[in-house]
Each structure stands twice: as structure tokens, then as C-alpha cells.
Design a protein that fits this description.
This protein is mainly α. The chain is built from 18 helices and no strands.
Length: about 450
């Protein structure tokens, strides 16, 4: 250990003195402040910490870091000196080696630590510089430094002005590019607006064309049935079947079976007894059979058309009253909700049948059912085979109903396009088309008088 200290002390002060100012200039401001306070101001670690506004440990670390960086600075200039040796040399010669402008080198951070402390530091520093035998040299060097600082600042200002001019020159083409991009954005926005408007016009045209097509199909079917009547060809439609007692009973039994299957979940939900379940099935079945019988009578010209339509409405009302008495108010409300959910469930079922093995996922099925259920019931209930009363009214009522169905189908397709594939959407369109065509065919057959 003694040999190491002896070797480090062999480096004389004259060896490092010429580089000291430059070495101090290489230090960061916090490290330089700590070094000056410790070895040139002879402050203790506690005093340093108070002045710098940090802990004792942090102050010591700054001093150690500053000494190590000074040692590395000297080492790069072939002056090998250890940290401990460097501390000894600086401590022994601190007064005469007070660097140029020491009073100014204590950083703003140290000065801001307190007015009293800052004043004390400045006064002490001034005394140290006054005590040195190199006072004149230091003053001269200080003036030179200040002059050099002024030149440096002027040069920096000139460089900054040149950089500003360069940036302004670079900004000009960027400003033009921004203007062009804004112009292109505005053009794209206008084109998009025009395309949206054109798309809406196309949709409206498609709806109108589809409605005209449906009206044409209704007219064609009616004309076909009228031709059959003119040639006295027997009706092969529902009216002919309903005239046969055996066939009528067969149709009734098929209807009862379909009713049991359709309303099985509701029966379980309402927890109906077997006796009430049978009453429920018969009520719905009898009303359906009577409605079918009345509708078929329209094809034979039996009775007054207005009276027949009123009888069909009365049949529905009577069934609703009987069901409400059987199920109670809450049960009948569930029955109504169940009926309104049937179109959504039927749509999903028919679409999966159309898709075959590539059916909808559970999420797709739930989403599609939700969309269909949100549509007006009058526009969607025909999907399950029921015939809307509008088909037994005037042509204006039929047109209004068809228009409502077309609009509802389009809304369903538009919303479903966000989660169905193009193949699934095409299949959904087929299901919708088949549904309305089936209603038109059935309505044309029932509404035609023979």
C-alpha cells in the first residue's frame, strides 16, 4: 500500500497543472460543482450536501465520480496518476490552482440552494482567488475567457441564424406537400361523399325494382289462375283440398302436429299440464283451420269478400281471448313474445339448411336472430309460412306490405354484412326471396275468385 502511494505521489503538481482547467471543463456541471466545493472551497461532505441540496452520500459519490473522470482525462494525455494520488495533489495545491472564473463555475443549482449559502460561497471563492499569487494572471485569463465567451456566443448566434434559414428553406417544400396532401384529401372526401350518395341511389333503385318484380309476380299468378277459371279447369289449389272432408281432416292433423312442435319450448316454459297443453294446441289449431277454410272460400267466390275478411279477423280475436283466459295475462304475454321470436329463429334455421354443412357459428346465429327480432313483426312473420292479412285487402295494402318487407330484408342484409361471409349473405338473400315468393304464391291462390 505504501509503495502504491509512493508511486502515485511521484507525479508532480507541475505535471497535471497545465491540464487542470481543461480537465475541469470536461466535467459535468454537478460533478464540477462538487469537486470545487470539496477541494477548492474545502467544504465538508455535510456542507456540500446542504449547498447542493442533496444527501451526504450523493455528494460523496459526485466527488468520487469527478476525481475518477479527472484521472481518466489525465490518463488519455499520458499522465498516469491514481485517484488517491490525484486527490492528494489537488488538496495540497488547491489554493494556488484555483481555476479561472471559479466564482462563476459553481452551478445555478448550487446557488439556488439558498441565498445565504450562495452568498457565502461567492465570498469564500473571491477570497481564495484574492489570496493566490497568480491574481493578475487569473484576472487576465478571466478577461480572455469572457472575450472568448462573447466570440463563441456570437458565432453560435450566427450558426443558429444559418440553421433557421436552412430550416425555412426545407420547410417551404414541406408546406407545399402538406397543401397538396390536404387538396388530395379534400378530393378523396368529395369522391367518397359522391360514391355514398350514388350507392344510396342504387339501393333505392334496387328496392323499387324488387318491389315492381314482386308486384309483377303477384299479377302473373293471378292472371294464371284467372285463365284456369276461364277454361273451367278444376282448381288444384287449397280450395279443392278443403272441399274434401278426409283431406281437410288430414290438413288439420298436420297443423296440430306442427303446432305442438313449434310451441313445445313455450309449453315447457309455461309449465302447462298435459290437459292445458292439449287445450292450447286445439285452440290454436282450430283457429288456424277455420282461418284456412275461410281463406279457401275466397277462391270459390262463396259469400261476401268483406264479410269473409271480417270473419277471419274475428277468428283471430276469439282465439286470442281464449288463449288469454287459458294462460293468464303473464302467460299470454309470453305467448306473444314467443310468436314474435319465431321469425328470427326460423330465419336462422332456414339459412343453416341452405348452407348445409357450412352452417352459421353460434355467435353468427345469435347476432342474426337479434337483428331479425328487431325488425317490425309484420314485415318478418311471413318467413315462417304465415300469410299477412294484407294479401286479402286492396292492391294498395299489398304494395305497402311488399314495400315494408323489401325494406326490412335490405336492412337485415346490410347489418348482417358485418359478420356474415359473402356466401352466407347470398344464402340469406335466397331465404328471404323464397319466403316472399311463397307468400305471393299462396296469396295469389287464395285471393283469386273462381
Amino acid at each position: 500500500m505504501n509503495e502504491l502511494l509512493t508511486a502515485e505521489s511521484e507525479i508532480s503538481w507541475d505535471t497535471i497543472a497545465p491540464y487542470l482547467d481543461a480537465a475541469l471543463g470536461e466535467l459535468s456541471e454537478p460533478d464540477r460543482d462538487a469537486l470545487l466545493l470539496r477541494y477548492f472551497e474545502r467544504k465538508s461532505a455535510r456542507e456540500m450536501a446542504d449547498i447542493l441540496g442533496i444527501s451526504n452520500e450523493a455528494a460523496q459519490k459526485r466527488v468520487s465520480r469527478a476525481v475518477e473522470r479527472l484521472r481518466e482525462f489525465f490518463s488519455k494525455r499520458n499522465v498516469t496518476v491514481g485517484a488517491s494520488g490525484l486527490i492528494v495533489l489537488i488538496s495540497a495545491n488547491a489554493v494556488q490552482s484555483a481555476p479561472v472564473g471559479l466564482a462563476a463555475t459553481i452551478s445555478t443549482a448550487a446557488v439556488l440552494a439558498g441565498t445565504t449559502v450562495s452568498t457565502s460561497t461567492a465570498i469564500t471563492t473571491t477570497k481564495v482567488i484574492a489570496m493566490t499569487t497568480l491574481q493578475k494572471t487569473l484576472v487576465t485569463a478571466t478577461v480572455a475567457v469572457l472575450a472568448g465567451a462573447g466570440i463563441f456566443e456570437a458565432r453560435q448566434a450566427s450558426q443558429f441564424r444559418e440553421q433557421v434559414r436552412t430550416l425555412q428553406q426545407q420547410q417551404a417544400p414541406l408546406t407545399e406537400q402538406i397543401r397538396q396532401l390536404q387538396h388530395e384529401r379534400d378530393d378523396a372526401t368529395n369522391r367518397l361523399t359522391a360514391l355514398i350518395a350514388e350507392n344510396e341511389q342504387l339501393k333505392a333503385s334496387q328496392k323499387a325494382a324488387e318491389l315492381l318484380k314482386l308486384r309483377g309476380e303477384v299479377g302473373a299468378l293471378r292472371q294464371s289462375l284467372a285463365n284456369m277459371a276461364a277454361t273451367n279447369r278444376p282448381s288444384a289449389g287449397l280450395s279443392a283440398l278443403m272441399r274434401d272432408p278426409a283431406m281437410k281432416e288430414y290438413i288439420h292433423q298436420k297443423q296440430l302436429k306442427a303446432i305442438k312442435e313449434r310451441y313445445a319450448p313455450l309449453v315447457q316454459q309455461l309449465n302447462l299440464t298435459p290437459e292445458d297443453t292439449e287445450k292450447f294446441t286445439q285452440l290454436v289449431g282450430d283457429a288456424l283451420l277455420k282461418g284456412t277454410d275461410l281463406a279457401s272460400s275466397l277462391t270459390q267466390g262463396d259469400g261476401d269478400r268483406v264479410q269473409t275478411l271480417k270473419a277471419m279477423a274475428d277468428t283471430r280475436t276469439e282465439m286470442q281471448n281464449q288463449l288469454q283466459a287459458l294462460l293468464g295475462e303473464a302467460g299470454y304475454a309470453q305467448y306473444t313474445q314467443f310468436n314474435q321470436a319465431i321469425p328470427a329463429q326460423t330465419t336462422v334455421k332456414l339459412l343453416n339448411q341452405q348452407l348445409g354443412d357450412n352452417g352459421l357459428s353460434d355467435d353468427q346465429s345469435a347476432h342474426l336472430a337479434q337483428i331479425v327480432a328487431a325488425e317490425p313483426y309484420a314485415a318478418t312473420h311471413g318467413i315462417d309460412g304465415e300469410l299477412d292479412p294484407a294479401f286479402f285487402s286492396s292492391q294498395e295494402d299489398i304494395d305497402a306490405y311488399l314495400q315494408q318487407v323489401v325494406a326490412s330484408n335490405q336492412r337485415i342484409l346490410d347489418q348482417a354484412s358485418s359478420f356474415l361471409t359473402s356466401q352466407q349473405l347470398a344464402a340469406l338473400e335466397i331465404v328471404q326471396s323464397n319466403s316472399i315468393n311463397a307468400q305471393i304464391t299462396k296469396a295469389a291462390a287464395l285471393a283469386q275468385k273462381h
